[in-house]
Amino acid sequence: MRLILLGPPGAGKGTQAQRLVERHGIPQLSTGDMLRKAVAEGSDVGKRAKAVMDAGQLVSDDIVNQIVSERIDDPDCAKGFILDGYPRTVPQAEALTRMLAEKGLRLDAVIELKVDEKALVNRMEKRVAETRAAGGEVRADDNPESFRKRLDEYRQKTAPLSDYYKGTGELVTIDGMADMDTVTAEIENVVGAAALK
Fold first, then answer.
1. What is the Cα–Cα distance from 188 to 179, expressed in whole angstroms?
2. Nearest-angstrom CA–CA distance, 139 and 154
3. Residue 33 falls within a domain, yes or no?
4. Is-contact 69 139, C-beta < 8 A?
5. What is the pLDDT along the chain (197 residues), one digit of tens a residue?
6. Prior bond to 75 cis, omega within 30?
């Protein structure tokens, strides 16, 4: 089962990915984790990524695509994986489609959690208030201004992926504003249907 979860920050992708990991025993592949692992292992692509990051620059699509390609060749991905934070752009999505085809693989589904952005901001503010009330630590970027910037960036760079995957016939949209268990059940329906293909 090979999945991509799409949706803006705060849509619940992390929670749902974790539930899929627990239920199906497939890894959640986070771009950040994959980059850190490649750098720590000192692979060729890891060394290239480290040099770019040490120079304070963004890692190129070429490097990210190679890191993802190598990661999905790992044995724990044999039964499938959930991509988290990749692809971020249409060129990355096109590269992923080519990469999977070269490996004789394809995505089972691209699941987009549709959410109301205003409600997301309210949800984030409530979460911050609850964390503070409980004496917890709040991330520096957990404030309405930063969150709105992250939403804007998502809208500009990542939202076009919806149209791309709609065009490939892989996109399934789920109401991300429903309660967590309902969203999980909807995702499981999609996964079940994909398994029957």
1. 14
2. 19
3. no
4. no
5. 999 999 888 888 888 999 999 999 999 998 888 888 888 988 888 899 888 888 888 888 999 999 999 999 999 999 999 998 899 899 999 999 999 999 999 999 999 999 888 888 887 788 788 888 998 887 766 777 777 888 888 888 888 999 999 999 999 999 999 999 999 999 999 998 887 77
6. no
Please check whether residue 181 lies inside any domain of the structure.
yes
The length of the chain, given as a count of residues: 197
- Tokens standing for 80? 């499938």
Written as one letter, the residue type at 11 is A
Distance of CA 119 to the CA centre of its chain: 21
Rounded alpha-carbon distances, angstroms, from residue 40 to 45, 132, 138: 11, 34, 28
Q: State how many domains the chain has.
A: 1
Alpha-carbon gap, residue 142 to 197, rounded angstroms: 41
Q: Which residue has the tokens 């995505």?
A: 107
Distance (Å, whole) CA 39 – CA 32 = 11
CATH code of residue 18: 3.40.50.300
What is the extent of the structural domain holding 84? 2-26+79-195
